[in-house]
Design goal:
It is a single chain. The protein is mainly alpha-helical. The chain has one domain. The chain is built from five helices and no strands. α1 crosses α5. The radius of gyration is 14 Å and the shape is globular. The N and C termini lie far apart (29 Å).
Amino acid sequence: MTQDNLFYGGAHPVFALCAVGAAALAEKLRAGDERAVAGLGHGLSRAHSLYSHDLLIDMGIDLTDRRTQQAIFRAFLDLLGP
C-alpha cells in the first residue's frame, strides 16, 4: 500500500478475486486434483481464452461458488496456525 501507483489501475478492484482464485487453486493442487493439475499445462482454456477466469473454470474453480470463496479464509487460518 506504500506504492500508490499499484492501487490506481484496473488491478486493484480485482485483487480479492485473484486472491480467492489463488487460494482455491492451491487447495486443489495440494489435494492432487487431476483437473487442476492438467489445467496448468494447457495455457489456454477450452474456449481458447487466456483470461484467468476461463482457465480457473477449466480447472474446476468457480469464483461465484461460496465454497470457493471461502478458500481464502481457510488459507488465512492455515497461516495463523492452531
